[in-house]
Amino acid sequence: MERVALLRTSGRRLLHRCRRGRPVVPAAAASSLARRPLPSSFPSRGYSALPGGGARFLAAAAPLHCSGRYWPAATPRLARRLTAPAVSTSPSPAAYDTDYVHEYAAKLGFEKVSEQTIEECKSTAVLYKHKKTGAEVMSVSNDDENKVFGIVFRTPPKNSTGIPHILEHSVLCGSRKYPLKEPFVELLKGSLHTFLNAFTYPDRTCYPVASTNTKDFYNLVDVYLDAVFFPNCVEDFQTFQQEGWHYELDNPEEEITFKGVVFNEMKGVYSQPDNIMGRVSQQALSPENTYGVDSGGDPHEIPKLTFEEFKEFHRKFYHPSNARIWFYGDDDPKERLRVLSDYLDQFEASPAPNESKVLPQRLFKEPVRVIEKYPAGQEGDLTKKYMVCMNWLLSEEPLDVETELTLGFLDHLLLGTPASPLRRILLESGLGDAIVGGGVEDELLQPQFSIGLKGVSEENLQKVEELVMETLKNLAEEGFASEAVEASMNTIEFALRENNTGSFPRGLSLMLRSIAKWIYDMDPFEPLKYEQPLQQLKACIAEEGSKAVFSPLIEKYILKNMHRVTVEMQPDPEKASRDEAAEKEMLKQVKASMTQSDLAELARATKELKEKQETPDPPEALKAVPSLSLQDIPKKPIHIPIEIGEINGVKVLQHDLFTNDVVYSEVVFDMGSMKKEHLQLLPLFCQSLLEMGTKDMDFVQLNQLIGRKTGGISVYPFTSSVMGKEDPLTRIIVRGKAMAPRVEDLFNLMYTILQDVQFTEQQRFKQFVSQSKARMENRLRGSGHGIAASRMDAKLNAAGWIAEQMGGISYLEYLRDLETKIDQDWDSISSSLEEMRKTLFSKNCCLINLTSDWKNLEKSSQHIAKFLDSLPSSPSLGSDPWLSRLPSVNEAIVVPTQVNYVGKAGNIYQSGYQLNGSAYVISKHISNTWLWDRVRVSGGAYGGFCDFDTHSGVFSYLSYRDPNLLKTLEVYDETAKFLRELEMDDDALTKAIIGTIGDVDAYQLPDAKGYSSLLRYLLGITEEERQQRREEILSTSLKDFKEFADAVESIKDNGVVVAVASPDDVEAANKEKLVFPEVKKCL
Ligand SMILES: [Zn+2]
């Protein structure tokens, strides 16, 4: 049914992703490069590959931060939004004897419902029904080695106590067959998974895993199946307390506090204005059904949840009759059914499917307006910090295929690129700083459309609403430019063909699309097939013109649709402290109502819970979790072909990889020749290259041309330390992709961007500044750990300093000044931009990287030669190296939040530590055991982890949505002690090694492989060094752990601390001991 899934917007609403990416380049690991960090701000709505519709991830399991490096924010949006179905990267579909499989299935009690060949993903898909329980299974077979399993339950909540979310966390805390504290963590530590997490949507809960290793894959599947059907949490009150909520009291004299992983995770979510906006909009759009409450949990409501309700919810909904199960990849389809039947056969049919049905919201007769307050800081002019968003529920009934597809296109036409009219007109109006609302959202039962602005003055709220309506009305009357329609069409087709899901498994992205219909009892195959309706839509546009296609949709679904909810959000500088005070007051009353013996009992229970949390699992229990052995691990690192040649005197790296006829290219320039004073302008310079016009074209035309001819172009700075060198690596990377016949166009467009774009559009530039500022402010609340990491890095090394200047607090301060400067001194800014172009883009300091198959690579050379010839060659100016640092002082960055982000870091090379591959194993182990147990499990934070940047030597600790501050620092400081006292048997050590290899060998699509190889080349990491690190990883011993203790000990004494935290917590910490000589207010 679901074509619009192709164009699915994702990452809107209550979604917050806890990814594991870190853009550093470990010598041994290629992995992190594939994980492009996700922009956290709204206009760049996340990557398609991730679930949208308000899904929430289980684990901030490992590093979440981006080391403060600046990353592209200006890549064409659609490329990030599309989830294309899997087109196998190798040319032939898998074949197997289907009759034989069906016979086998019947024997196991599965009935074949339907079998279809899906050309779009070169797969055979069979839908089975388990006769006894009614469980449905999609078994998708093809030759993709990145196998995916997922089990999904329909879990619509009736209130906002967060049951589905807490259950999602809890079922992975031990089960019948795997009776240990957290099998999930054991899998994180010791498997080769390419994906492992769980997410809660407003109406369903998903448990997906992926691996390229078959044995590993089935290990993961078994642990997950046992976890969802037979979890220990339904008998264990303490797990409910730990993951959900509980009162904590260390001794009867102290105050009672709330603790719980989900409780604190949600406090973080409720501190972010964009999240509040998404939640309020969704709830107001659907007041009558399950979407009127928050499946994630409202921190005010979570403490109302009882253990009885929690158990009952599991009993009712985590049942095969209410399950949809997905298998995908090149494994044996018989084995899938065999494993499943073992579990499913243990159940009888249940009435759950009736009880879990999601009912539609009836459409309103009249629009609704909602006003909500959000916690704002004291900084800046509050009257300019309003937000407004208009939302429509599009239909009461499910839409037909064609309509959904067309709506998806319409969404791209309206909002998909900076040149798209609705987006452009809203931003150019100057009425607000940045876009909110994600356009068309279609992952829930009824599709919706949302759009608005933030950073709006109170008196302009009305004007924003009028402008939205007027723009849509004009577009309905006048239609879209044919160039715009062509550009959208090409962009969408390109993305479908390329099917680039980044580091997200293709089979998982496919599963999420299928589930979005299947979960409502609709056809699970339809969302996988896009070719025919796409061709129909194209033909329809060709015959009737685009206006005839799109105008009626705008009319019907938006302009004349009375089911409209306008949400206005008002900044409230008191809200954060009021909420905090209310919580304290409530806890005080709880305490007052308790007798002395109640209090003693609570203190005892608190102690018992902590002891349980801090006691390691017995080795026998750990052995229950299946693991690979070192024999299963390849001895050599993953090989990426590279040929280093020259064209017209310029170095060209080529990677011969099968890419389905897409050519990926990076043109790399040295930043060193740039004047130092221009550094902070650089991100805006990059954005200007892509979003300003030339002499002959305005920026809309230029953007459309890029959309029509290529798969997208982005420009961004890249910085990193280089091991053993003072001087950091500083580059500008121009990244682009195109189908092979259009490589010439790609390089022509790159030339246009680099040489012809005019830096004359003052108003546009001003918009870039407001958008960047809004994005930075959003990061400060939602990804404070990234801000803290970047700040620490800036205090410890030059690359970190540069990155912080372009993406940290320093950058935010710069943007605030720049905003006024644009009006006063635009000419000097404009001429600086021009000067930057002259110094940066010269043939002399250029390098080209290409990834495609050899025949495309060969054909591309002539276009590259022409491109290089046209670049100016200016004499290298030579310049001073970048060696600045921020003062090495502990610092607190105060923001209006209820949870903190606490960091501490130091350079361990300076303490004499010399890099050994074992460091990867050890730092992963510290994250997954010591920090996970102390910062998350007993500390109650959503995440705690460490990160070792092997290029600079900076080792950092970070916590995420953390109720503590000083306590967390104490945990960091005890890490050396933890290592010295560590006992580890061979099994545990082997697991740690295998888990590390899993990171190092992370699955990469061809473009990511070519890019990793480029970065290794730039950083001087050789194949010999990779081999050596791998051998060191494989031979890691307990002795290495003990030796590493000395290195981390130096951080305890000489490290630097940065926390992004609430004012109260910082004040309290400083009262206890002066941790933060510097306190900075940023919001
Ligand atoms: Zn969660």
From TrEMBL:
Compartments it resides in: Mitochondrion; Plastid, Chloroplast stroma
Signal peptide: none
Gene Ontology biological process terms in this record: protein processing
UniProt xrefs under InterPro entries: Metalloenz_LuxS/M16 (IPR011249), Pept_M16_N (IPR011765), Peptidase_M16_C (IPR007863), Peptidase_M16C_assoc (IPR013578), PreP_C (IPR055130)
Keywords: Chloroplast, Hydrolase, Magnesium, Metal-binding, Metalloprotease, Mitochondrion, Plastid, Protease, Transit peptide, Zinc
Subunit-level organization: Homodimer.
Listed name of the protein: Peptidase M16C associated domain-containing protein
Species of origin: Digitaria exilis
